[in-house]
């Protein structure tokens, strides 16, 4: 696989290589991830964070340090350092940082500084708008996924919506555990090879693709409970099939429906670590609840037009997406 080092090692070239080879060779993965993310190696800044001892909030559950030996010790230090740097995560009761970070330990635990910087880079870039409504889940972002599903697979969307199932019911569970619950553990890093070489908005086609791949089974089910059991089952999906569907859905989604309110990838910089939330958090306490209820009611009304009356899908999608973008930006 020497070809990996014969081309200019840019994000774009690595993206093209992945399209050809589908996987980064295991022996090159760590090095290529550091290149893809352009990590700054801020050792002094990390050591300061590592020395900051914090009492962990009740929603952050770490493994016992004798459970997986040295890997767990390193993983726990990275989690504690992330909490020291991003204290707002302490308030996020619907997001257990340990569940998000632990799956990466198999690749990264031998390189603690790289482990920390990769996780912070992912949180800063691929997890944009996850923290807009702390302590609650990012319902605004997740409802935009509903609109994308409606555009790409209206029959599946209507079937799920008629049973009261939306993206927040399945996508958020997969996202907040870094997708390790929907792919075979041996293919987890392959999935993240593709996520990291693409712009952050590509990540959001992964949960939609996972749902779509199970469409044949879901359409045949007639109750909320049966569908949720399938969506939350432990049966892993094939990573290559999942990625193929995600790329196809991404390509088929018009630009105006893409999550283009997200900024493109920004690497961490040398000398300091940026804060996770550079502006004040958007919380339900910061905005009148009646306004939030009105916004959600408007979106529900739009989606109902599709579900009940067969209204023009594109017209409803355009109006709904505009509403979602306005809510994120306000």
From TrEMBL:
Pfam families: RabGAP-TBC (PF00566)
Rab-GAP TBC domain segment(s): 23-199
Protein name listed in UniProt: Rab-GAP TBC domain-containing protein
């Amino acid at each position: 696989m020497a070809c990996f080092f014969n081309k200019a090692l840019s994000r774009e070239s690595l993206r093209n290589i992945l399209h050809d080879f589908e996987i980064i060779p295991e022996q090159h993965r760590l090095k290529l991830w550091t290149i893809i993310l352009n990590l700054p190696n801020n050792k002094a800044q990390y050591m300061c964070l590592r020395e900051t001892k914090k009492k962990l909030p009740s929603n952050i559950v770490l493994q016992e340090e004798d459970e997986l030996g040295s890997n767990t010790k390193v993983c726990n230090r990275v989690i504690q350092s992330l909490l020291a740097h991003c204290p707002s995560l302490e308030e996020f009761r619907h997001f257990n940082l340990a569940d998000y970070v632990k799956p990466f330990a198999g690749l990264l635990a031998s390189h603690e500084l790289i482990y920390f910087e990769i996780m912070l880079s992912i949180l800063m870039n691929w997890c944009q708008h996850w923290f807009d409504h702390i302590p609650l889940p990012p319902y605004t972002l997740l409802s935009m996924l509903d609109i994308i599903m409606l555009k790409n697979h209206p029959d599946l969307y209507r079937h799920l919506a008629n049973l009261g199932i939306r993206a927040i019911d399945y996508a958020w569970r997969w996202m907040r555990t870094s997708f390790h619950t929907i792919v075979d553990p041996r293919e987890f890093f392959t999935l993240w090879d593709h996520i990291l070489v693409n712009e952050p908005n590509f990540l959001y086609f992964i949960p939609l693709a996972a749902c779509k791949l199970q469409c044949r089974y879901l359409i045949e089910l007639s109750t909320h409970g049966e569908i949720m059991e399938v969506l939350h089952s432990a049966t892993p999906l094939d990573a290559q099939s999942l990625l193929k569907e995600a790329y196809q859905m991404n390509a088929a989604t018009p630009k105006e429906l893409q999550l283009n309110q997200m900024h493109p990838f920004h690497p961490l910089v040398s000398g300091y670590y940026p804060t996770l939330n550079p502006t004040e958090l958007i919380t339900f306490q910061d905005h009148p609840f009646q306004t939030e209820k009105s916004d959600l009611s408007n979106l529900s009304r739009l989606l109902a037009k599709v579900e009940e009356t067969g209204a023009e899908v594109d017209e409803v999608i355009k109006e709904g997406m505009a509403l979602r973008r306005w809510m994120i930006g306000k």
